[in-house]
Design brief:
Layout: E1 4-12, E2 21-34, E3 37-48, H1 66-75, H2 81-96
Antiparallel strand pairs: 1-2, 2-3
Length: 107
């Protein structure tokens, strides 16, 4: 199992700094198949940014790749990558041995 990080949406400024990324929405997903049953886990959220075009290393919107955006998310102070990936893995394990299931006592 290896969690996959994806960017689901990017918000950019319409005023100065025009096209500066101000929020990145992300998800972290993973799944495993056991006996033809897929068990999956997912965490999602967003990270806000204060774009500054005069800052060293500033990347223009048109030059931002998903890899760059994911690195910004993972490097954010509000993100604990290990905790998020552990939560996704725990969801998968809980799916394999659920504490509750949907059922009805009648046919």
């Amino acid at each position: 199992m290896s969690a996959t990080w994806k960017v689901t949406a990017v918000e950019k400024k319409t005023k100065l700094p025009k096209d500066g990324i101000c929020e990145i929405h992300w998800e972290c997903v993973d799944s495993v198949e056991v006996a033809e049953t897929t068990h999956s886990g997912r965490m999602w959220g967003s990270v806000r940014f204060s774009p500054n075009a005069s800052k060293e290393g500033y990347v223009k919107f048109s030059d931002v790749t998903e890899e760059i955006a994911i690195s910004w998310v993972k490097d954010s102070e509000s993100i604990d990558v290990d905790e998020i990936e552990a939560s996704v893995a725990n969801q998968i394990e809980e799916s394999k041995s659920p504490l509750t299931v949907f059922d009805t006592p009648w046919s």
